[in-house]
Amino acid sequence: MTETENIAHSNYDVVVLGAGPVGENVADRTRAAGLSTAVVESELIGGECSYWACMPSKALLRPVIAQADARRLPGLSAAVQGPLDAAAVLARRDYWASDWKDDGQVGWLESIGAEIHRGHGRLSGERTVTVTAPDGTQKVLTARHAVAVCTGTRAVLPDLPGLDEVRPWTSREATSAKAAPGRLVVVGGGVVATEMATAWQALGSQVTLLVRGKSLLNRMEPFAGELVAEALTEAGVSVRTGTSVESVTRENGTVVVVTGTGDRIEADEILFATGRAPHTDDIGLDTIGREPGSWLEVDDSLRVTGSDWLYAVGDVNHRALLTHQGKYQARIAGAAISARASGAPVQADPWGAHAATADHDAVPQVVFTDPEAAAVGLSLAEAEQAGHRVRAVDYDLASVSGAGLYGDGYRGRARMVVDLEREILLGVTFVGPGVGELIHSATVAVAGQVPISRLWHAVPAYPTISEVWLRLLEAYRDN
Fold first, then answer.
1. What does the pLDDT look like over 250-278, one tens digit per residue?
2. 304 in a known ligand binding site
3. Which of 209, 233, 340, 407 has the largest CB neighbor count within 10 A?
4. Calpha distance 190→207 (Å, rounded)
5. What cystine linkages occur within this chain (predicted)?
6. Cβ 298 vs Cβ 281: under 8 Å
7. CA distance 250 to 268
């Protein structure tokens, strides 16, 4: 018997590569439709979000935000002036990361009838995945209908000489560290950089934030980055924009950073939050004539361009690098795979059951800094670049009664971008304490293309921060 003949073979309707939230949701939808489904994972079931991103980062940030909110309230502020109990915060973080054990996630996948294959999965031809287990044994999984690539992304480190010896943090180390470093340099100006600067500064680190560009959060409206930068500076973070990193070394345990202007900064740890790359470099794309390490282009049903069996769902297709958007795509992809498998019609027209239309028009995001920044849809600049005739309507959130009651000295801003041809909203941005809970109302308005004339009849409860909706509509009407 040959070595190939010794390899076990199994057939399924669907094979899912990657068991993060995206892969789990694809499996859930295909299993709900009665399709046999295998899920392949080389790390922890639950993926990046559960152990190194969404869950641990928000567990670190929640006490920081709660304390900041409490300090804005007379009668309570005096009681919360001391430092956070870092050990308790980290212990709660560990709980929300399930102590980096995936028993619960395994149990859930098994409960829906998906079969889990531990090991590194690689495409080995059309509709075929070869799984190499930790002990080196292999098995071949064949998919009758679809293979869904849900392998996500990995952190990108800059090409700096000797960086490996420095042992830099990426988002994984930043969210799983066991103690606050005395001094932390954060490189980057996006979501991970601003959130981790917020968290670790509050937990006792002296944080320096180095930003190559001129502003923070440059994918949002400019005022979002401005307000966050202002608050970080007031909290004690040294924010340096227009600053590049020329070299990084570790000398006697100390990280030494030399900037483009020749400044020398010493720290205990350095975090690079400078981008993500697709986790497709070693999944066998070359065996099906595609470039290893590339983003996978898909149609709105999440099927890879030029294929009738390969799907790419979540971050790996580069449409929207957000967990909630990836889970949305997974629901769409699972439904599309199931429809095609059964021979049912595929509703792939915009806003159809098998079209991820929201990826283009209504992607929401919250940055959990203090203040929070939340946005959905297009910014003013994006709307203008797309050729829409638009008008931006701004309002000072501090002027809303509910915001003033939320906390003394409230600072924030809201903007809605109005399509003047159709009088619908193309985008909405809120910045201020507590605004993350406002963004779903904006998402409904944008995704639903609700006419402004109808929004007048959506009455905000008084006195809440959501009263800003009324003020924005009044500003649009009166100017």
1. 999 999 999 999 999 999 999 999 999 99
2. no
3. 209
4. 15
5. 49-54
6. no
7. 9
Confidence of residue 152 (pLDDT cuts 50, 70, 90): very high
193 is in an annotated binding site: yes
Local structure of residue 3 (DSSP, 8 states): H
Instruction: Give whole-number Cα distances, 120 to 41, 147, 280, 389, in Å.
Output: 7, 15, 12, 49
**pLDDT for residue 188 is more than 50:** yes
- According to CATH, where is 3.50.50.60 located in the chain? 6-46+102-154+278-358, 163-274
Q: Is 195 part of any known ligand binding site?
A: yes
Q: What is the pLDDT of residue 1?
A: 41
- Is 367 part of any known ligand binding site? no
**Residue 275 marked ligand-binding:** yes
Comparing CA positions, the residue from 84, 30, 35, 27 lying closest to residue 61 is 84
**Is 20 one of the annotated binding-site residues?**
no
Q: Is 192 annotated as a binding residue?
A: yes
115 is in an annotated binding site: no
**Tokens representing residue 192 in the block:** 């991970």
* DSSP-derived secondary structure for 266-294: EESEEEE---EEES-TTS-GGGGT--TT-
Find out whether 44 and 55 touch, Cβ atoms under 8 Å: no
Q: Is position 75 annotated in a ligand binding site?
A: no
Q: Which two tokens stand for residue 328?
A: 């949305």
- 4 has pLDDT over 70: no
Q: Is the domain 163-274 a CATH 3.50.50.60 member?
A: yes
> DSSP code of 99?
G
CA distance 343 to 353: 15
For 201-243, how does the pLDDT look when each residue is reduced to its tens digit (9 = 90+)? 999 999 999 999 999 999 999 999 999 999 999 999 999 999 9
Res 2 pLDDT > 70: no
Helix (H, G, I), strand (E, B) or coil at 372: strand
Does the pTM of the predicted model rise above 0.85? yes
Residue 135 known to bind ligand: no
Domain(s) labelled CATH 3.30.390.30 in the chain stretch across 371-478
Instruction: Write down the architecture of domain 371-478 according to CATH.
Output: 2-Layer Sandwich (3.30)
Task: Give the H/E segment covering residue 144.
Answer: strand 138-149
Q: Give the pLDDT band (50/70/90) at residue 377.
A: very high
CATH annotation of 6-46+102-154+278-358: 3.50.50.60
